[in-house]
TrEMBL record:
PANTHER family, per the entry: L-RHAMNOSE MUTAROTASE
Source organism per UniProt: Hypsizygus marmoreus
Name of the encoding gene: rhaM
Domain of life: Eukaryota
Protein name in the entry: L-rhamnose mutarotase
Gene Ontology molecular function, alphabetical: racemase and epimerase activity, acting on carbohydrates and derivatives
Length: 122
């Protein structure tokens, strides 16, 4: 799962584009063994949440091939400007720094700010 933030002024255009994703972009995803790809929008926070299944054997290589696909790069040139990345230093999709923030990190990589074990002392 990954996330970014949609700029409010682009909400309608972003949804319109994604209602009819360019065929070349879909073909690049299929070649990269991506299935069940979805993007959800949580309007109160303008949050975009993306999920997909990967069925290939070399994720890094497949993602590199997607990033090198000319049609996908044109798509990103349009859609990245409609979003704000949560990743410090991100310059756009397909760059060295990921544009979408991966949301499902192992708990050991996250700072715990609260825990309730279920016991209270009364």
């Amino acid at each position: 799962m990954a996330s970014s933030q949609l700029k409010p002024s682009y909400e309608a255009e972003y949804k319109r584009l994604h209602a009819s994703v360019w065929p070349g972009v879909l073909a690049a995803l299929a070649r990269a063994h991506i299935t069940d790809y979805s993007i959800h929008h949580y309007a109160p926070l303008q949050l975009l949440i993306a999920t997909f299944e990967y069925t290939g054997d070399d994720y890094a290589l497949d993602m590199q091939l997607v990033a090198e696909d000319p049609e996908t790069r044109r798509w990103w040139a349009v859609t990245d400007g409609m979003q704000e990345s949560f990743v410090p230093g991100a310059q756009g999709s397909g760059g060295d720094v990921p544009w979408w923030m991966v949301c499902c990190l192992p708990y050991s990589e996250l700072e715990e700010v609260f825990r309730f074990e279920g016991e209270t002392s009364t």
